[in-house]
Amino acid sequence: MELIGSDTSPYVRRIRLLLAEQAHTYTSLDIYSEGRAALAEKTPIMKIPVLIDNERTLYDSRVIARYLCETHSIGEPLSWDQENLLSLIDGAQDSLITLLLSQRSGIDTDTDTLFYRLQKERISQSMAVLEEKARQGEFTNWNYPAICLFTLIDWASFRNLINLDDYPFLKSFRASHTKQKGVIETDPRG
Fold first, then answer.
1. HSE on the CB side for 165, CA within 13 Å?
2. How many CA atoms lie within 13 Å of 63's alpha carbon, on the beta-carbon side?
3. Distances from the Cα of 12 to the Cαs of 15, 16, 80, in angstroms?
4. If residue 159 lies in a helix (H) or strand (E), which one and from where to where?
5. Tens-digit pLDDT profile for the chain (190 aa)?
6. HEC profile of 82-137
7. Distance between CA 152 and CA 156 in Å, rounded?
């Protein structure tokens, strides 16, 4: 198996953590400059991660996670409640990425425009629910939903997009998993 991605992508990091104990190769690309052409050779949607397993190429982290579970018994099948949690995590993650890319493009995301107001609303509401779910112990097992939550929180903290002091249970959750296999090796700060 070959995983293609970027060292700073939270979606790639999810799969790297899921594969932490599995044999695979990892190819890191700078998808915003010289790695763009290499990415285009692997995926028509120009997004990461990409997993190549023999003749099969998969384009999305959730699809990759499901594939790994079903074909390689990596992880466990997700319940509908876990799928819903992933929708919350992905919604917040996508909105945070939108804010970051907009800021890097020179767009003022602090303006009172509908688009950015909706992104911030989604982040705020999703993070509040995730904080409550963490308080209830929903993420005590280190499984795919917990990995996704960890990468969201750690990435948002790394990018200074959220203040973890506002989310004490999420902050505690993050701190409790910093020693999991692969976490140090996949840290975007390194």
1. 1
2. 11
3. 5, 6, 23
4. none
5. 999 999 999 999 999 999 999 999 999 998 888 899 999 999 999 999 999 999 999 999 999 999 999 999 999 999 999 999 999 999 999 999 999 999 999 999 999 999 999 999 999 999 999 999 999 999 999 999 999 999 999 999 999 999 999 999 999 999 999 999 999 999 999 8
6. HHHHHHHHHHHHHHHHHHHHHHHCCCCCCCCCHHHHHHHHHHHHHHHHHHHHHHCC
7. 6
Q: How many residues does the chain have?
A: 190
Find where tokens 């112990």 sit.
137
> Which stretches does DSSP call E strand in the chain?
2-5, 25-28, 50-53, 56-58
Q: What is the pLDDT of residues 138-151, one digit of tens each?
A: 999 999 999 999 99
Name the residue among 73, 61, 74 with its Cα closest to residue 3: 61
